[in-house]
Amino acid sequence: MTTPPARAVLAPEWLAHRYDETHDAIHMIEVPRAVRRREPFLVDAHLTAASTPTVLSRGDVLSAALHPAPLHFIFHSAYCCSTLLANAFDRPGLASSLKEPQLLADMVGWRHRGGDQHAIGRMLDQSLTLLARPFEAGEAMIVKPSNVVNGLAQAMMNIRPDAKAVLLYAPLRGFLASIARKGMWGRLWVRELLAKQLADGTVDLGFNPRDYLLHTDLQAAAVGWLAQKKLFQTMATRWPDRVRTLDSDVLVARPHAALRASAALFGLDLDDATTDAIVADVFARNAKDGTVFAEGQRGSDRAAGEAVHGEEIEKVAIWADVVARDAGIAAELPAPLI
Questions:
Q1: Contact (Cβ atoms closer than 8 angstroms) between residue 246 and residue 235
Q2: Residues sharing a CB contact under 8 Å with residue 92, sequence separation 6 or more, in sequence order
Q3: Does the model's pTM come out above 0.85?
């Protein structure tokens, strides 16, 4: 043990980081608010404390857990400013945000290893309780899961009937440009994502298994993107009072309106002065590393990717439009945030 169990469980600085189903144990690590804000993702690779966790039985952790805060979600399609939006709501006294907590990804891994669905559902519920521990009384908790966790998004909305969600996505051409710009690693990532989506059963676009082997890398990227868009369409239709969709281009072009509308959805009191301060600070920086964006940099970065890979992107985008139409995916998602 690296710290007394009571402190590990009760202090808000301690994060429920991982779940070990073999030993029914929770890995708790100390992650202060400043570290949570600085690091882009709450995963092993970004948290030095992850190498020396305090390991406690699930029962001990839950028996001492504080009353959870109101919990809301930012579900996303990747490469769409979701980290930026999560950072925007991490304000003392207003809300705490969690960016891609490993604990939720562990639920997906357990599921893919053939875990019992009832046990996974129970632990998913308890994971949300453990994650909904704010730093200050009165704060809400905004959780931005990894998009690998999107296969559990509807389950989480069912488990937390009071939760609201922003479904954030990048336009397809911009998403494809981001993937192409990252070279081999971006292309590998979309294939890994698609493999996990297939394991989740969230890809229903009319293809047979052999087709996926014949797709180019950017076609695989488009298939994964379309599967997420179809999921978001289903969620927005199913929960029209709880879910709003948001195009990342709209978020960047109209940050004040997007923040105020998101805050209203989450039940947060966000005044004009605070909104102005958030936009001036958070929206001016790269959410992953904190560096200041030069004026027009986001657009120039996308243009650079499209300039090199434009022909391939355009052909895949046209192909994806046909796939989307045949699969009943609307060009514009319902329930727009603004």
A1: no
A2: 33, 135, 136, 139
A3: yes
Tens digits of residue pLDDT in 191-239? 999 999 999 999 999 999 999 999 999 999 999 999 999 999 999 999 9
336 falls within a domain: no
**Any alpha helices (H) in 113-171, and if so which ranges?**
117-131, 153-159
CB-side neighbour CA atoms (13 Å) of 121: 9
- Integer-rounded Cα Rg, in Å, for the chain is 20
Boundaries of domain holding 192: 5-326
Q: Is 144 exposed, middle or buried (0-12, 13-18, 19+ CB in 10 A)?
A: buried
Write the single-letter amino acid at 200: D
Q: What CATH number corresponds to the domain at position 321?
A: 3.40.50
| Total domains in the fold of the chain | 1
**Other CB atoms within 10 A of residue 138 CB:** 10
Over residues 277-292, the pLDDT tens digits come to: 999 999 988 877 777 7
Residue 335 in any domain: the answer is no
Q: What are the tokens at 188?
A: 């590998």
Is the pLDDT score of 266 beyond 90?
yes
